[in-house]
Amino acid sequence: MADISEPRTDEVQFRFRQDETVDHPAVTVDAFVEQSNAAAVRIEPGDDARDLLPHLSRIWLVEVNFPAFTDGRGYSAARILREAGYDGELRAVGDVLIDQLSHMRRCGFDSFAPQVPLNDADAQAAFERWPEVYQPAADDRRPIWAKRHGEAHNG
Predict the structure, then answer these.
(1) Comparing C-alpha atoms, which of 54, 3, 5, 48 is closest to residue 28?
(2) Which end of the chain, N or C, is surrounded by fewer C-beta atoms within 10 Å?
């Protein structure tokens, strides 16, 4: 049996996409901007996701590293990319915890590679925890106030 206290490679545990998994290695934001053949990029805390906006059409995968569950900058990076129209794979990697899954999905993450494997049943419950939401987000769910008042949600 594997020791779960040891960090592992970025193996995808949950993926909410129908397209093929990207097999290109992710490069740093600086390296990505300087080359034209990279299709995958990894955002680290402190990187500015807006640096990628001129290149969204050639990005297939964005990995957002969460080195510690207390570092929430990755949520902002995801939201910036999705609001700018990025529709490729957005993967949360690193210190991803059960309690964060639902919020990460709302920000636009559609794949997850936690450092320590999560219990599948607990993760499923977390993804389904709140059937109704109160504000619009990247996941395009209609807020409950819009449902009550018959208003369309326009992302």
Answers:
(1) 48
(2) N
4-15 burial code (b ≥16 CB/10 A, e <16)? eeeeeebeeebe
- Residue 34 and residue 22: Cα distance in Å, rounded? 21
Kindly tell me the burial class for residue 131, based on how many C-beta atoms sit within 10 Å of its own C-beta (0-12, 13-18, 19 or more): exposed
Whether the model clears a pTM of 0.85, i.e. scores above it, the answer is: no
Helix (H, G, I), strand (E, B) or coil at 34: helix
* pLDDT for residue 69 is more than 60: yes
Q: Which residue has the tokens 């990029």?
A: 41
Looking at residue 62, the DSSP 8-state letter turns out to be E
* pLDDT tens digits, 31-51: 998 888 899 999 999 999 999
